[in-house]
Design goal:
This protein has 196 residues and is α/β, with parallel strands linked by helices. It has a single domain, classed as P-loop containing nucleotide triphosphate hydrolases (Rossmann fold), CATH 3.40.50. Helices cover 39% and strands 22% of the residues. It contains seven helices and nine strands, in the order E-H-E-E-E-H-E-E-E-H-E-H-H-H-E-H. Helix 1 packs across helix 7. Belongs to the guanylate kinase family. Keywords: Kinase, Transferase. Essential for recycling GMP and indirectly, cGMP.
């Protein structure tokens, strides 16, 4: 039996970079679960790679068909953005291990849907100062940088990823990884996956 490893962490903790490195590791042989979103594509993103970018109408169709495993809505400065996991028939835990990126709430819903024994959390964290630096650096690369959105996300993330919420979600010390240096963090997560 395989597992679904879910990368969880605040915005700008490096989840996307870690995700790509883990997928590239042939020893792990991880298969990806690509999430869906209604948010606009960022520069250098590709539909079907980072996310499946869809309209709200398509989300409604998937909901009505009973295909949405979990979803969450972020009320951004630019309006509501939905992120969601779809039972699109591409994940089969009998054939190996999978990896995904999600929120803490999304992780909990996936675990409820698939079962606690099939879903493993991988919580990525960095200091608040480093997190803000990374978020500003990333936003500077956008066509229309949005500092208000950085601030909104930071405050929302601090509430969403409180120590109390992490504890309630069963995030233990062994599944928490400090991303001060990317390669070191990836090495520690790789060892964690190999042990399970």
């Amino acid at each position: 039996m395989g597992y679904l490893y879910v990368l969880i962490g605040k915005s700008a903790t490096g989840k996307d970079s870690i995700y790509k490195k883990l997928l590239e590791n042939p020893e792990l042989n991880l298969k990806e679960v690509v999430l869906y979103t209604t948010r606009p594509m960022r520069k250098k993103e590709t539909d079907g790679v980072e996310y499946h970018f869809v309209t709200e109408d398509r989300l409604k169709e998937l909901r009505n068909a009973g295909k949405v495993i979990e979803e969450r809505c972020f009320n951004t400065i630019d309006g509501p953005w939905y992120y969601f996991t779809v039972n699109d028939g591409k994940m089969d835990l009998t054939t190996g291990n999978y990896i995904s990126i999600n929120t803490l709430e999304g992780f909990n819903r996936i675990r409820k849907y698939l079962g606690n024994d099939k879903v493993k959390p991988v919580y990525i964290e960095v200091s608040d100062i480093e997190l803000i630096k990374r978020a500003v650096k990333r936003e500077e690369k956008q066509i229309n940088p949005n500092v208000a959105e950085i601030c909104r996300r930071f405050l929302a993330d601090n509430a969403d990823f409180s120590e109390e919420n992490l504890k309630l979600s069963g995030i233990e010390a062994k599944s928490r990884f400090q991303n001060d240096e990317l390669e070191s963090c990836v090495d520690k997560i790789t060892a964690f996956i190999k042990e399970n």
